[in-house]
Amino acid sequence: MPADFSFQLWPDDLERLEPYIEEACARVPLLGTAGITRVVNGPIPYTPDGNPLVGPMPGVPGAYEACVFSFGITQAGGAGKVLAEWVTEGETEWDMWSVDPRRFTSFADQAYTNAKGVEVYSHEYDIQFPRYEWPAGRGKRVSPLYERLASRGAQFTAHAGWERAAWFARPGDDTSLDACKTFDRRGPWYEAVREECLAVRDAAGLLELPGFSRFRLAGDGAAAALRALVTGTLPRTGRMSLVYISDTQGRIVSELSAVRLGKDEFLLTSGSGAEWHDEELLRAHLAKVAADSGGGGGGDGGGGIALTNETEGYTALVLSGPRSADIMAEVSPAADLALPWLSHQRTTVAGCDVAALRVSYAGELGWELHVRMGDAAAVHDAVTAAGARHGLRPFGTYALDSLRIEKGYRSWKQDLSTDYTMLEGGLARFVKLDKAQPFPGREALRRQRDAGGPAQTFATLTVRSPDCDAPYLATVWAGDERVGLVTSGNYGHRTEQSIALAVVDAASAAEGTALEVEIFGERFPAVVQAEGPLYDNDNRKLRGVDS
């Protein structure tokens, strides 16, 4: 196709379609009497995931996209509504991340787009299995550890182009793609993932997570600027915490880990898929802060505040489990292991500079070790060698998802979306309505609070489903009434039960309420659990008290 091909059609080519036209006329004879009045022969556009691009144009403030509609006019009404909301309101009624242009970042080059487009088109109407890892366009972003992990049996999944170990196959495990065409939780990964989860519980596990969206915010006024954006408070220097950004309606826009390095210096990290979304959000806010203070609207916000994207330069090694402190003591003798949960420090491992964050998405005692890409192999090898004496085992993202759901930890654009307000999402503890600096959505959240609270709320359910776990957006029922939707579902190997995180009507959210969750057309009994984690409810293991 010529590079300048746009708003054009190809010549008619009815011969290519003749067999299909004949079959259609045989099935609907009336078609054969109607005649052909016009032929439209043009290309069908495809993005790498088959969804259109509707929303803010990456890197171009004030510009919006509405293109790549593979199903054409059938998508026009919804696209027009959403685009109008983006242009006039700066936000949409529904969470539209699935079509947001910013979901594709620098990895989505032409070769990747071509490969994925052909794959999507070829399997347009195939059944989409939850753990079938589509093979086209892989290997776009790999860390220096990729070959090491592969040699240990890693089966990979891609997040924003980054190859991450999903699970580690044992000798004899079926690693074929065909074996993954199942909705049953007991796929070929099941026993390996179970062993990984129990290793993290009983000893220690090591997982590499390349691709954290990573930004450094620094300069005079950085703390004040950030405080005016997030719904809650900021951590003290030397500490870290989760911070949330809401829109004008108080709905969840983003979640970031804020690591405070100094009075006006922060490391901000978020999910791998959020890189362009969060960078644009932060830069737009800094530009507004600068403009309001008369400092202009420079790309870094002006006023001496700089935002630096460090995503490509670093990776993270997640060391988690009760023996992780013993391993850290061996590989980093200078580290202060007495520092509490949600603290951070600079240390060295194998002679390499490491940012050790005392936090664990797995819900056990542990650290995230953030290192430069060039140092990843040395640090990984040192931790692996020391860990051999302590039962250390590599684990993957499938295990991590099982571990985090037992703790009730949220996942961005599953449990955290603009379909729900901060209060509906069960995040009231991260909202400070009385803080001095207003933030986007504060008044909307005050109104929701003053009206008696949200009509729907976050809840953890245990589900008696023998074979399958609840998929995203599974319906939650109370008798014949639809009362909510599942946001995440998985099997918890430490608690030995199927778990669903959901948003349900407030009247159905009391502990012990009997509900049902519909899983692939069949309803299964479910029970609302008490607020808080199902595993290590008082966080003693996480804090290292029981290690």
Topology overview:
Blueprint: H1 14-27, H2 31-34, E1 53-56, E2 64-67, H3 76-89, H4 110-122, H5 146-151, E3 154-159, E4 162-168, H6 190-202, E5 204-208, E6 213-218, H7 222-227, E7 240-246, E8 252-262, E9 265-270, H8 275-292, E10 306-309, E11 314-320, H9 324-331, E12 344-349, E13 352-357, E14 366-372, H10 376-387, E15 392-394, H11 397-406, H12 442-450, E16 456-463, E17 475-478, E18 481-492, E19 497-505, E20 514-519, E21 522-528, H13 540-543
Helix pairs in contact: 6-11, 9-10
In short:
The chain has about 550 residues and is of the alpha+beta class.
Any key phrases for this structure?
single chain, 547 residues, alpha+beta, FAD/NAD(P)-binding domain, Alpha-Beta Plaits, six-stranded mixed sheet, six-stranded antiparallel barrel, 13 helices, 24% helix, globular
